[in-house]
Amino acid sequence: MPRITQEQKKLNREKIVQAAGEGFRLHGVDGIGIEELMKTAGMTHGGFYNHFSSKEDLAIEVYRQGFADSLNALAAIRKAHPRSARAALHDMVDGYVTAAHRDHPETGCASAALAVDAGRHGATSQAEYRRGLEGYFSAITEMVLDRAHQTGTEPTSAEAREQAVALFCQMVGALVVSRAVAEADPGLSDEVLTANRKQLRRS
């Protein structure tokens, strides 16, 4: 049989990470098996170990890629509002705390979809999740400081980080809680999103 090229191997790995990213977000890391993930990626179960040593190894890559994608999206929001950090913060909130994001975890932010998994899967998973969180906290802290500078106030770096941590955790929490009741009580789920979005825009 012809040997697979390095380019094809790279593409195959990307397909596996893509399938796992959607599968893990939708079902949880423990809620979907390697065989199903590989089938979704269009490959056989045995080919998995040409790319990853274990499911945990794959999960780490999903965390890494998921946060990278989210931080790139946040950077695009900041770039779209070069003169108003307040507008950028509102855009971030309005894009995150939404029914569309709630209803499609498979394509949404890894921070909300995989928070419980990171907590359950030990120090290695938590360390990767922490790196992603720090990326978010740092970016939002910069946005908070930019907003303060533009409005003539000067919080300390510690105060700005505190605001950033609280803001991001409220966004994630609102999404997680709204998902927890979305089928049982759609009205309450929408209320959770609306109330938190309004409060976050005031912060």
Automatic annotation (TrEMBL):
List, for all copies, the residue spans of the domain called HTH tetR-type: 10-70
The record's section on Gene3D superfamilies has: Homeodomain-like, Tetracycline Repressor, domain 2
Q: Which positions does the record tag as DNA-binding?
A: 33-52
Q: Which Pfam families match?
A: TetR_N (PF00440)
Q: What is the top-level taxon of the source organism?
A: Bacteria
Q: Give the GO molecular function terms.
A: DNA binding
Keyword list (alphabetical) reads:
DNA-binding, Transcription, Transcription regulation
Name by which UniProt lists this protein: TetR family transcriptional regulator
The organism is Streptomyces aurantiacus
